[in-house]
């Protein structure tokens, strides 16, 4: 989607700005090390994050799902949400059956090839090599 590409471009711009800030002190190690900060924050956050209620409903039963849902849902909505999750799980089982159909295989392959080509020939490669392109161009 275009929002995905926008966020990728903003991330690339941010990396260029950080690189520009660290260039005078040859701080490439600091630039690469900055990626550790959000990674550590995420790793610590994942330790305290409960499992998904939908996953719990499917794997450990309704009681486990209800216990987690009490943390984020109002008590009046839990029953309704549990019923919705049960319906969605039934629909999801049917979806996998449809996706395995031979008639849909060509569509999935074409979509996957286009997604791969977008990454291989997209703007990301041009932005990555922009300094060399501009230096060569004068």
Brief digest:
The protein has 138 residues and is mainly α.
Write down the secondary-structure element order. Answer: HHHHHHHHH
Determine the fraction of residues in helical runs and give it as a percent range: over 70%
Low-confidence stretches: none
Largest sheet: none
Class computed from helices, strands and strand pairing: mainly alpha
What is the multimeric organization of the chains shown? single chain
Beta-sheet strand percentage? Answer: under 5%
Q: Care to count the β-strands?
A: 0
Radius of gyration: 23 Å
Salient structural properties:
single chain, 138 residues, mainly alpha, 85% helix, flat
Write the layout of secondary structure elements.
Layout: H1 2-22, H2 28-33, H3 36-48, H4 53-59, H5 62-72, H6 75-99, H7 102-121, H8 123-128, H9 130-137
Could you explain the architecture of this structure?
The chain is mainly alpha-helical and 138 residues long. The protein has a domain at 1-49. The chain contains 9 helices and no strands. The chain is flat, with a radius of gyration of 23 Å. The mean pLDDT is 86.
